[in-house]
């Protein structure tokens, strides 16, 4: 699933008249680039959620015949649901019992998904997602086995997740504060289908909310792919960075 429904408020003025998914990087849209990225990793069945200028996205998919992939649309025209809510709304478009991948349309990377999947299998995880050691203001926190144990905003000092719950399985002794490792989220994740039976939210919510809500009692891991190329095409000025890396 490629999350493509966002309003793209950081990407104005383009998003005043277009969806961010159709912004161009070296004459290819972000959406096309992510579809082709998934194809290179052996994935040709794709779900795309739409909200902001949804008709432009669906028209581009039809005009280009899905760029060679089979595309299913999850329509969020009535309300944008963020990544977690968007995933839950699309539940019926997934194959029961089969694991699946999600990514964000505005992230470009050359992460090898087969390595992420192998890591996921090795850890016997419910969810595994890609992370790197790049600098950011908000980090996911991991123990020395790469298991998720929290979230931290380094600007405000706010923390969420099992690291704040001292009686969780990750922190069994009252008052225990194990050292944690900060990593930046890369927005590419692999899920077991069972996630749909465990999501504790409805409506509008993020995948980060889901990870943190389930981390204490379920196997959720971060796969470090530091050294790979990754660009968050979140603002217009990031286009030139992306164009210098992704031809």
**CATH class value of the largest domain:** Alpha Beta
The tally of helices reads 6
- Following the backbone from N to C, one meets helices and strands in this order, namely EEEHEHEHEEHEEEEEHEEH
Instruction: Give the integer mean of the pLDDT values.
Output: 94
* Rg, Cα atoms, Å: 18 Å
Q: What is the distance, rounded to the nearest whole angstrom, between the alpha carbons of the first and last residues?
A: 23 Å
Q: Specify the structural class.
A: alpha/beta
The CATH level-2 architecture of the largest domain is identified as Alpha-Beta Complex
Instruction: Show unreliable segments.
Output: none
How many β-strand runs?
A: 14
Percentage of residues assigned to helices: 10-25%
Shape: globular
- Please identify which CATH superfamily of the largest domain we are dealing with: Spore Coat Polysaccharide Biosynthesis Protein SpsA, Chain A
**Beta-strand fraction estimate:** 25-35%
Number of domains: 2
Largest sheet: 10 strands, mixed
**CATH level 3 topology of the largest domain:** Spore Coat Polysaccharide Biosynthesis Protein SpsA, Chain A
């Amino acid at each position: 699933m490629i999350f493509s429904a966002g309003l793209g408020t950081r990407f104005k003025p383009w998003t005043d008249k277009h969806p961010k998914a159709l912004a161009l990087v070296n004459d290819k849209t972000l959406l096309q680039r992510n579809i082709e990225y998934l194809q290179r990793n052996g994935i040709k069945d794709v779900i795309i959620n739409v909200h902001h200028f949804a008709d432009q996205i669906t028209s581009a998919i039809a005009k280009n015949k899905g760029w060679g992939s089979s595309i299913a649309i999850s329509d969020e025209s009535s309300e944008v649901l963020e990544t977690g809510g968007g995933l839950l709304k699309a539940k019926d478009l997934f194959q029961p019992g089969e694991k699946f991948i999600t990514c964000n349309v505005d992230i470009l990377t050359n992460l090898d998904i087969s390595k992420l999947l192998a890591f996921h299998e090795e850890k016997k995880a419910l969810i595994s997602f890609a992370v790197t050691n790049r600098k950011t203001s908000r980090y996911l926190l991991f123990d020395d086995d790469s298991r998720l144990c929290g979230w931290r905003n380094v600007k405000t000092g706010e923390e969420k997740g099992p690291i704040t719950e001292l009686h969780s399985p990750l922190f069994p002794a009252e008052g225990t504060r194990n050292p944690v490792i900060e990593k930046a989220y890369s927005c590419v994740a692999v899920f077991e289908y069972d996630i749909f039976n465990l999501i504790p939210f409805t409506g509008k919510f993020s995948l980060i909310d889901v990870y943190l809500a389930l981390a204490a009692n379920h196997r959720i891991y971060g796969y470090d792919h530091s050294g790979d190329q990754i660009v968050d095409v979140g603002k217009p000025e990031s286009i030139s960075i992306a164009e210098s890396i992704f031809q």
